[in-house]
UniProtKB/TrEMBL annotation:
NCBIfam families cross-referenced by the UniProt entry: PRK09636.1 (NF007214), sigma70-ECF (TIGR02937)
Residue ranges annotated for the RNA polymerase sigma factor 70 region 4 type domain, each copy included: 112-160
Family stated for the protein in its record: Belongs to the sigma-70 factor family. ECF subfamily.
GO aspect biological process, one term: DNA-templated transcription initiation
Highest taxon of source: Bacteria
Keyword DNA-binding belongs to the record: yes
Protein name: RNA polymerase subunit sigma
Subunit structure: Interacts transiently with the RNA polymerase catalytic core formed by RpoA, RpoB, RpoC and RpoZ (2 alpha, 1 beta, 1 beta' and 1 omega subunit) to form the RNA polymerase holoenzyme that can initiate transcription.
RNA polymerase sigma-70 region domain span: 10-73
All copies of domain SnoaL-like, residue ranges: 176-234
Organism annotation: Mycolicibacterium iranicum (Mycobacterium iranicum)
Alphabetical UniProt keywords: DNA-binding, Sigma factor, Transcription, Transcription regulation
One Pfam family cited in the UniProt record for this chain: SnoaL_2
Length: 298
C-alpha cells in the first residue's frame, strides 16, 4: 500500500476513531491527540500486517484513552469547582465534521456527564461494548482483565448511565421558550419552564465567572439566570448568544462581548441544557476557555 493510500484509508476512519476517543475521554482535545498518536503508530510501521485495520486502530485508541483516564484523576484533584465534559458545538449544517463525532444519543451532553462518574475501566467497557459493539473478549485484552470481568464492568456502568434523562422530543421548543422568557425578564415564565429539581452547574476552573457551586431548585436557578440578565443587560446577554447544537441538541454558545460604560464584559461560554417532562431539568455552563476545543470559540 502506498503512503497516499494509507493516509486515505486512515482518514476514512478518523470520524469513527474520534467518536470512540471523545466518548472515552470526554474532551475533544484529548480525542484529537489520541487519534493523531494512533496514526503515528500505524504510519511508523508500514510493514505491519493488520487483518482488520478498524478493529486494530480502535484498540490502539482505546488503550491510549484508558491511559489518559487513569491519569486524569490526579489532574482533576487540582481543578477548581465542578468538572464537566468538553462540549462539541456545531451549526445546523450536518456536514460539519464534528457533527459525526457526536452523532447518536450516547454523545448527548447529559449522557457524557454521567460517563464522567464512571471508573476508567467501567467507562471503557461500557462505551466500547454498548456504543461500538466491541466483543468483551477484546475489551478484556484492553483492560488486562477477563471477559466476564469486562461484562460486569459494563453492566454496572449501564445501570449508572440509565439515570440520564432520555432525549426529549420537545427539547428545542422548551429551550427556545426559556430563552424568550429570559429576554423578557419574566420570572414567572422562567420558573414555569424549569423542572422542580433543576440544577445549574458551572465549570470554569476560576478562569471565568460562573456559579461556584451547583445551584439546585427552580426558584434559585431562575433568580440566578435573571440576575445575570440584569447584570449584563438582557439585550446584550442574549444578543451575544447564538443558538447552536451542543452535542447534537439545541443549546447556546456565546463568543462574549466587550465591556460598556454600564455593564462588564461578557466572557465566552457554552451552555448545554437537558429537558424532561416539558421543562429544563439541567443547565450546564462551560466557561473554562480550555474546554472550547470542540467549538467555534477554539
Amino acid at each position: 500500500m502506498t503512503a497516499t493510500a494509507r493516509v486515505g484509508e486512515f482518514e476514512q476512519m478518523r470520524p469513527h476513531l474520534l467518536s470512540v476517543a471523545y466518548r472515552l475521554t470526554g474532551t475533544v482535545a484529548d480525542a484529537e491527540d489520541i487519534v493523531q498518536d494512533a496514526w503515528l503508530r500505524w504510519a511508523a510501521n508500514p510493514g505491519t500486517a493488520v487483518n482488520d485495520l478498524k478493529a486494530w486502530l480502535t484498540t490502539v485508541v482505546s488503550r491510549l484513552a484508558l491511559d489518559r483516564l487513569r491519569s486524569a484523576a490526579h489532574r482533576r484533584e487540582t481543578y477548581v469547582g465542578e468538572w464537566l465534559p468538553e462540549p462539541v458545538v456545531t451549526g445546523f449544517d450536518r456536514d460539519d465534521p464534528l457533527a459525526a463525532v457526536v452523532a447518536g444519543e450516547d454523545a448527548r451532553f447529559a449522557a457524557m456527564v454521567v460517563l464522567e462518574n464512571l471508573t476508567p475501566d467501567q467507562r471503557v467497557a461500557f462505551v466500547l461494548h454498548d456504543g461500538f459493539a466491541v466483543p468483551f473478549s477484546e475489551i478484556a485484552e484492553i483492560l488486562g482483565s477477563t471477559p466476564e470481568s469486562a461484562r460486569q464492568l459494563a453492566s454496572r456502568a449501564r445501570r449508572a448511565v440509565s439515570s440520564a434523562p432520555p432525549p426529549a422530543p420537545e427539547h428545542a421548543e422548551v429551550v427556545g421558550r426559556l430563552l424568550a422568557a429570559m429576554a423578557s425578564a419574566d420570572l414567572d415564565a422562567v420558573v414555569s419552564l424549569l423542572h422542580p429539581d433543576v440544577t445549574f452547574t458551572g465549570d470554569s476552573n476560576r478562569k471565568a465567572p460562573t456559579a461556584a457551586r451547583v445551584i439546585h431548585g427552580r426558584d434559585k436557578v431562575a433568580r440566578f439566570l435573571l440576575g445575570l440578565a440584569a447584570k449584563y443587560g438582557p439585550d446584550r446577554l442574549l444578543g451575544s448568544s447564538v443558538p447552536a447544537l451542543v452535542n447534537g441538541e439545541l443549546g447556546v454558545y456565546s463568543p462574549g462581548a466587550g465591556a460598556t460604560d454600564d455593564a462588564p464584559a461578557i466572557m465566552p461560554r457554552i451552555q448545554a441544557l437537558t429537558v424532561r417532562d416539558g421543562t429544563v431539568v439541567a443547565i450546564y455552563d462551560v466557561a473554562n476557555p480550555d474546554k472550547f476545543t470542540g467549538s467555534p470559540l477554539r
